[in-house]
Design brief:
Length: 256
């Protein structure tokens, strides 16, 4: 596949400037989002749940653009958890097909817009065609210098911690690693997020006040913003509110 090397002015999207009231010097470097409420959004409109997920994709695209335009370094989203396999098989299939079609459709834009995409999670059980697209998109965007976009897919925080512990134990058994040298940095280097800074802000939509097995290690000092807005309705106004909330906090990281 070949890709154009410049964005023609005809195709260039409108860049959104930082809204008044936000302090450009106090923006989070990394935002994590639990995108919740797609099903309830669809139900409230008398639509099938799949339409909630389809609308959720548009919300995600818009949020990625806003984060990129407003100077956020990284956006990490919870797209599919290790627990989501327990949903009815039709819904799991809808989600897998959606991930594949969206990735295929957006790959050129991701490349042109300098987005560096990565997928965090145990990707092995995903459909082969999706895995190939994931590999292609990571490879194609790995040198991009813009926003880092991490998509948690078949991700579970506990599974991630167990896998990291297994890898460290294997290295110790082989004599490559002295167990007494395992500190927080060594441990973090075995997580899916090894090359990423911890999130400063966690946003959860749809009013639920839970972490739901998301980034258990990495969210240790994140500020949490819960909004009642359902994910497909999440927009610039909702993101601005989350950022204002974040900027109103005093971050002490355990100090005084
Ligand atoms: C939670 O809403 C949402 C999900 C489990 C899926 C989120 C996925 C997307 C928005 C698509 C992302 C696409 C790509 C390509 C990364 P829910 O179904 O749990 O809603 P409910 O709690 O109202 O039932």
């Amino acid at each position: 596949m070949t890709y154009p090397s410049v964005i023609s002015s005809k195709n260039a999207r409108k860049v959104s400037t930082l809204p008044a009231g936000l302090d450009s010097l106090r923006m989070p470097e990394h935002i994590a989002i639990i995108m919740d409420g797609n099903g309830r959004w669809a139900k409230a409109k008398g639509l099938p749940r799949s339409m909630g997920h389809t609308s959720g994709v548009e919300s995600l695209k818009n949020t990625l653009h806003l984060c990129s335009d407003w100077g956020i370094g990284a956006l990490t989203v919870y797209a599919f958890s290790t627990e989501n396999w327990s949903r009815p098989s039709e819904e799991v299939n809808v989600l897998m097909t959606l991930f594949e079609s969206v990735l295929k459709r957006e790959l050129t834009n991701l490349k042109l817009e300098e987005v560096k995409i990565n997928f965090l999670g145990d990707l092995d059980p995903l459909p082969i065609a999706l895995k190939e697209l994931i590999n292609e998109s990571v490879e194609l965007t790995k040198k991009n210098k813009g926003i880092r976009f991490n998509v948690c897919t078949n991700y579970g925080g506990r599974r991630e911690l167990v896998l990291a512990a297994q890898k460290l134990a294997e290295r110790s058994v082989k004599g490559e690693l002295d167990p007494s040298c395992i500190d927080e940095n060594v441990f973090a280097s075995e997580l899916f997020t090894a090359s990423e800074v911890d999130p400063d802000l966690l946003i959860r939509t749809s009013g639920e006040k839970r972490i739901s097995n998301f980034l258990l290690w990495q969210l240790a000092y994140a500020e949490i913003h819960v909004t009642d807005v359902l994910w497909p309705d999440f927009n610039a106004d909702a993101l601005k509110k989350a950022l204002l909330d974040y900027q109103s906090r005093s971050r002490r990281f355990g100090g005084v």
